Amino acid sequence: MTPFASRRIAFALLAPLALAACATSGPPLAGAATAALDIPEVADGTLSEETMVEVTRRLSSDAFEGRMPGTEGEEKTVDYLIERFRAAGLEPGNRGSWVQEVPLVEITGRDFAPLTIAGGGTGLSFEYGTDWVGVTYREEGETRLEGSELVFVGYGINAPEKGWNDYAGVDMTGKTAVILINDPDFDNATLEGPFGGKAMTYYGRWTYKYEEAARQGAAGAIIIHDTAPAAYGWNVVESSWSGPQAYAQRGENAPPLTKVNGWVQNAVGARILEAAGHSLSEMSQKAKQRGFRPVPLGLTASTGFANDIRTFASRNVIGVLPGSERPDEYVMHTAHWDHLGRCTPAPDGDDICNGAVDNATGTAALVALAEAHRKAGPAERSLVFLAVTAEESGLLGADYYAANPVFPLSQTVGGINMDAFLMAGPSRDVVVVGPGKSQLDRFLDAGLGENGRVATPNPNPEAGYYYRSDHFAFAKRGVPMLYVKGGEDLIDGGKAAGAAAQLDYRQNRYHGPQDEFDESWDWSGVMQDLQLFYRIGRAMATSTSWPNWTEGDEFRGIRDEQCAAAGTGC
User: Fold this and answer.
1) Cα–Cα distance between 427 and 528 in angstroms, integer?
2) What Cα–Cα distance (Å) separates residue 465 from each residue in 232, 308, 424, 456?
3) Which fold is adopted by the domain 16-104+313-565?
4) Which tens digits make up the pLDDT trace of 122-174?
C-alpha cells in the first residue's frame, strides 16, 4: 500500500477496538525513550542501485500483470523473489520453505444494478462506478439489498471510553448506515480533540466503520466520500473497489458481516440527504458534536449484484540471514509484493496497474538490503526479509503472518516497513509516520545523525497513514515497527518541490495504470533512504537492547504482556 489508501480488509483480521483510540502523531521525535539503549555505530552498507532498478523494472513489467494475488502474476512474482532471495544469500525462512501460504477468498462482483433510493416523494437512481461502488464480504453467489431503511449515523463511531456513540438509541437490524469519512475533529488545526484533532484515529478508517456497522446488525454501510478527509480522490475508490476483491478466509465464530459495504460520491450523498429534507453540510456539522444521535432518513436503499467466488492460497515469501550470536532474536524487514492487477483503464486503454512505485520499489529494497547485509557478514541477531501478499486487499498477508508467525513475536525485536519509494531526489529529511510511538525512534535518530538528515513528523496526520500499511499488523500485536517515508524537504527545490512530487504521484499515478517504471528515474534519493534503513536494521541486529513502545502508547501494554509471558526474547 502507498501512504494514501488501502483496499478492503477482512473483519476477522481487524485490530481490537481498544487500539483505535490513539492518534497517529505522538510526542516529539527526539527522546522517545528514557531508558538507556544500546545503539551501535554502523558503517554504510554496500547497496546496489543496479539491483533496485532491475528488480523494480522486472516486477512492474506488463508480464507480471499488476501482481494480483491468485493470478499468473503472483506465480511469476513469487518465483522471481525466491530466485533473487536465494541469489542474495538468504536462507529459506519458513522451516526450509521460502513461502508461507495465506488462505484467501476472492469475490468478484458483476452485473451491478443501480443504487436506488426511494421515499420522501422522490426516486433516485445512481449508476455503479460513476456514482457508487460496493462489494460484499459474504461468500454468497448473489447479493440483494431490498428496501433497506437508511439511517444517517454521522461518523459511525461507538467509542465507550470516549463517551461517544453514533448509534445510540437505534436498532440497525436490516437497515443501512450512511456514514461520513474520517472522524469528528479531523478539520481541527491542532492535534487537540476527542479523536486526536487533525490526526486520524482508527475510528476514522473505513475498515472500522464497516466493522462497527456489522456489529450493530446493519444490512448495509455506505460511506460518503470526500477527498480532503479521505486523503484520496474518487478515482482511487473506484479503481480499488472494482474487480476481484481478496479477503482472508473466515473461520468459525467469525464476526458478523453486512450484506453490502460501499461508497457514494460526495454529490450523491448530498442528494440523498436532500431528498430526506437535510443538508449534508449541516448534518456533518451536527455529527461533530458530542451527543449526536442517529437520524432516520425516511428513505430506503436497494441494489444487487452477482458474485463469482473462488478460494485459493496466496503466498508470503520469507528469507532469513541467521544471526551469529543470538540467532533466535529477529529483526524484521517488510514490504508487500502485490498490487491491483488489471484495473480501470487509462485513457489510452492500458488496464494493467503495474505498481512500479507501489510497491515494486519496496520489494526491490528487500533484495538490495539482503545483499548488503550478506556482504557485511552475519549480525548478532537474525535478519528476516518478508515480502507479504494482499496488502492492497487490507494488509492480509502481513496480518496472517503476524497471527501465525514463523518467528515468535516475543522474539522479534522490531522492524522496518518499506512501502513506495518516490523518485523525488535526495532530501534533508525523512517523514516519520507515527512519530514518538516507540524507542525505535532512537535508532532512527542515530541513523539520521550519521549523514546530517532530520526526522519530520508526518505532515498529514489526518490521513491516518499509520493504519494503512503492513507494519500495523505487527504493531497491533505488540512488535515495535518503524514506518519511514522519503523526505519532503528536497535538496533540489526544498519543501515546495517535495510537496509537488507527492501531489503529482497521488493525483496522476497512484493506484492507476500510470504507476509504471520509467528509465529516466533519479534513484539518488531512494538510495539515500535505503542506506538509512540499512543502518537502522544493522544497529537493531547488533544491539543487545529490546526497544519498547513509549509509556502510554496504545501498544505498550500488549508488548509488556507479551514479554512477561515469554520464556525467551523480550
Assistant:
1) 8
2) 12, 32, 20, 15
3) Aminopeptidase (3.40.630)
4) 899 999 999 999 999 999 999 999 999 999 999 999 988 889 999 999 999 99
Query: 3-state secondary structure string, 214-234?
Result: HHCCCCEEEEECCHHHHCCCH
With respect to CATH, is domain 107-309 assigned 3.50.30.30?
yes
Give per-residue pLDDT as tens, 501-530.
998 998 899 999 999 999 999 999 999 999
Cell numbers that stand for 558 in this block: 500488549
| Cell digits of residue 563 | 514479554
Q: Which residues of 47-58 are buried (b: 16+ CB within 10 A; e: fewer)?
A: bbeebbbebbbb
- Cβ neighbours, 10 Å, residue 452: 7
Within the chain, which residue ranges are assigned CATH 3.40.630.10? 16-104+313-565
Would you give the distance in Å from CA 404 to the centre of its chain?
19
Could you please report the per-residue DSSP string of 157-192? Answer: -EEGGGTEETTTT---TT-EEEEESS-TTTT-SSS-
Q: Across 337-472, where does the E strand assignment appear?
A: 341-342, 352-353, 381-388, 412-417, 429-432, 454-457
Q: Looking at the chain, which residues constitute the CATH 3.50.30.30 domain(s)? A: 107-309
Q: What is the grid cell recorded at 159?
A: 467509542
State how far Cα 543 lies from the chain centre.
29
Whether the Cβ atoms of residue 56 and residue 234 lie closer than 8 Å to each other: no
Determine contact, residues 381/549, Cβ cutoff 8 Å: no
Q: What is the DSSP string of 417-453?
A: E---------BSEEEESSTTSBTHHHHHHHHHHTTT-
Q: What is the pLDDT of residue 158?
A: 94
Cα separations in angstroms, 229 against 354, 372, 394: 27, 40, 19
Q: Using an 8 Å Cβ cutoff, are 138 and 220 in contact?
A: no
